[in-house]
Amino acid sequence: MALTLTDLFCGAGGSSTGAVDVPGVTVRVASNHWQLAVDTHAENHGDTGHICADLSQIDPRYYPKTDILWASPECTNHSIAKGARHAPQPDLFNPVPDEAAERSRATMWDVPRFTEVHRYQAVIVENVVDVARWHPYRAWLMAMDSLGYDHEVVYMNSMHAWAHGAAAPQSRDRFYAIFWRKGNRRPDLGAVQRPPAWCPEHGDVRAMKVWKNAARAGRFKSQYRFACPHTECRGREVTPEWLPASSIIDWTDLGQRIGDRARPLAEKTMRRIQAGIDRYWSGADRDPLVVNHVSGADGTRSSSVREVAPTMVAGGLHASLLVPVEGREGKVARPVAEPYRTQTARNETGLLTPFIAELRGGGSDARSITQPLATVTASGNHHALIMRNYGQPIGGEAHLTTPATEPVRTITTAGHQSLLTGGSPAIEDCTFRMLTPSEIKQAMAFPDNYRILGTKRDQVRMAGNAVTPPAARDLVAAAAESLEGAP
After folding, report:
1. Cα–Cα dist 272/276, whole Å
2. Which of 156, 316, 317, 468 is deepest in the core (most CB within 10 A)?
3. Is 430 a catalytic residue?
4. Do residues 439 and 253 touch, judged by C-beta distance below 8 A?
5. Which CATH number fits domain 3-191+467-482: 1.10.275.10, 3.40.50.150, 3.10.450.40, 3.90.420.10?
């Protein structure tokens, strides 16, 4: 079935990239207020019409009619973490008057405004999780109801978007409101929220989301978890598969020895790196780590590279060899220069790895490259790669191997990260570098050949603001499947 889609607040094009991965779906028009973002979208989506405009100031009748609307209204001023007293940042860098914050929040109202004119068959709205705390939120839902739409809200982490392909190698919690015309078939959104996982009793399963409270809203781990769907397991918790942070790292660039830097690292950054060393390299395991420079107490800013990568920012890491413990078919040793294989709840891979330091603040400081990267933000490069410096030339791999009997930890992808390897080295003997725009783009799950224009800062901003294509792909696919046979 051929379906057309309008992409409002399209940014660099993550939502459009995911949408066109769905057979039969084409993006007819994409629009954003930032010309560089529109140019980037046009560079990669040449068959789409483009309009650069302030959507709140334009007549929706200027846009063509389509079957589906995807909208990603500004999220900066919906974030609870941002706080009402903080100066809003419409371009994510330059402060503006407080009135602009209200205008940013008002972009949510562009959704019913455009819907009233075009009467889309389905509407998908993406935003930060905290948008549900926006005071007019219920009124906004009622506006869509009055226009003739039923809805369901989905809280999904991008690292769990496996319904129609690979997920993103990044932990990124987002809110998605899916609307469909009353009388149309309800989209099967339950299937979108059943990531593959491993149960010790039943093997490979499609995990079931289990909420911790009646609100049924919020972030992975904080407000919900996943369980085995078989009743015999009585809600046994399982961990969905993930793609590790190591899969997006350029392992040819180890960074610079910290002790050789002309400009010393900030005291807070050094504390976070040390916290990662103390936490992960004091025992028998010497996994690489991801150091969170974003937020949180120093003691909680590190995680093993075996974990999922935190939300994308800008850091990198390095390791030499991943050695599977199991001898099952397909589980063979491979250089860390290659993408790390999909991770499950089973400990099957042994390695000595670096970690990523998250430099911006928040709830963590470092995590292993075997975990998903931390959430990537648009406010700058905050992920740094930390590795132990062995005084050997770049490209040497044997010095980073560890016995296969030592399982690797889950890989994470926290933003603002650094990489550390080895056993309890002095900070000065570790190497350090920030993640590159190319690595951040890959952590967002953009295709390798996707071109993001502008300076490094522009590229990080556009990537951090983008929708991860796998999440858009799975949700648009659910909407498209529900419209099969619709008038």
Report:
1. 6
2. 317
3. no
4. no
5. 3.40.50.150
The Cα–Cα gap between 169 and 482 comes to 28
Residue among 158, 175, 221, 241 at smallest CA distance from 411: 241
In the structure encoding, which two tokens stand for residue 207, read together?
């995990």
Identified catalytic residue from 75, 199, 228, 430? 75
Neighbours of 54 (CB within 10 A): 12
pLDDT by residue (tens digit) across 236-294?
999 999 998 888 888 888 788 889 999 998 898 888 778 777 776 666 555 555 555 55
| 3-state secondary structure labels for all residues of 206-267 | ECEEEECCCCCCCCECCCEEEECCCHHHCCCECCECECCHHHHCCCCCCCEEHHHCCCCCCH
DSSP code at position 263: S
3-state SS class at 47: coil
Ranges of each domain in the chain:
3-191+467-482, 196-233, 251-435
